[in-house]
Write a structure and sequence with these properties.
By secondary structure, the protein is an all-alpha fold. It has a domain at 3-142. 66% of the residues lie in helices and 0% in strands. It has helices at residues 2-36, 42-63, 67-76, 81-86, 92-101, 104-116, 124-144, 167-176, 188-196, 204-218. The longest helix is centred in the N-terminal third of the chain and has 35 residues, at 2-36. The chain is elongated, with a radius of gyration of 42 Å. Residues 184-199 have a biased composition (Acidic residues). This is Serum response factor-binding protein 1. InterPro entries: Bud22/SRFB1 (IPR037393), Bud22_dom (IPR015158).
């Protein structure tokens, strides 16, 4: 239950940070425009433009910030974010993220959670660390491109031609298509029946029919030309 509870709390904190980031970005961008449009001597304007560039870099950091990681960090960290902001040795990225973590709604949420769960130090950091390790392994796995490749539809089969069709499939097509029948295949049974009837007198119409069958048996497969019978 602890795992589900902390996960829900982190998701709620993430939504609060998303809203707070919008307001923070608006304030920073307004400050950048104010510095860029400031008047004064050339030296003063140069310094203000440089400061505006630093503010703008923090804006870009906040725009790309991963709120999932920041929410987990806010739940477990006891660092004073005001000190990070005012520390001269802090980088622009550290200052930008500290500004977001130091928002009043974020701090109020974390403080309220810790009051409701006085023993949070015994289980919250362990769960967050476990999630971070799983995420790191997953990202490294994707970066390496590991994993078996699956061939969903084979393009060729053993003992087949380059067109990717098996012999069995070709034979089935031949059986269904009359143009692939061998010469005289359809007439073998009729010829055998005629031979079993004997050499007695044959009706003229039957004789003509037998002659026509013999001619058809001697013809090759249809090649696209019109065939006429005598």
């Amino acid at each position: 239950m602890e795992k589900l509870e902390i996960n829900n709390e982190i998701l709620t904190l993430k939504r609060e940070m998303k809203i707070g980031r919008v307001h923070l970005l608006r304030r920073l961008i307004a400050q950048v425009k104010k510095l860029e449009n400031a008047k004064g001597t050339d030296e003063q304007r140069t310094k203000k433009k440089q400061k505006a560039e630093r503010w703008m870099q923090q804006v870009k950091v906040l725009q790309k910030a991963n709120l999932d990681s920041l929410a987990r960090k806010a739940m477990v960290s006891e660092e004073c974010w005001l000190k990070v902001i005012s520390e001269p040795k802090s980088t622009l990225e550290e200052r930008a993220l500290a500004r977001l973590l130091n928002l009043k709604k974020v701090q109020d949420f974390v403080t309220s959670f810790r009051k409701e769960h006085p023993e949070w130090k015994s289980w919250v950091p362990q769960l967050v660390e476990m999630w971070d390790e799983k995420k790191a392994r997953r990202l490294s796995y994707k970066a390496k491109g590991a994993g078996p490749t699956v061939q969903l539809c084979p393009t060729s089969f053993p003992n087949s031609d380059n067109d990717g069709t098996t012999d069995a499939a070709k034979e089935s097509v031949k059986k269904r298509d009359p143009f692939f029948c061998k010469e005289g295949d359809d007439d073998d049974d009729d010829m055998e029946d005629d031979e079993e009837e004997g050499d007695g007198p044959v009706h003229p119409s039957w004789a003509a029919k037998q002659q026509q069958k013999v001619k058809l048996a001697n013809l090759s497969a249809f090649q696209g030309k019109k065939i006429t019978f005598d």
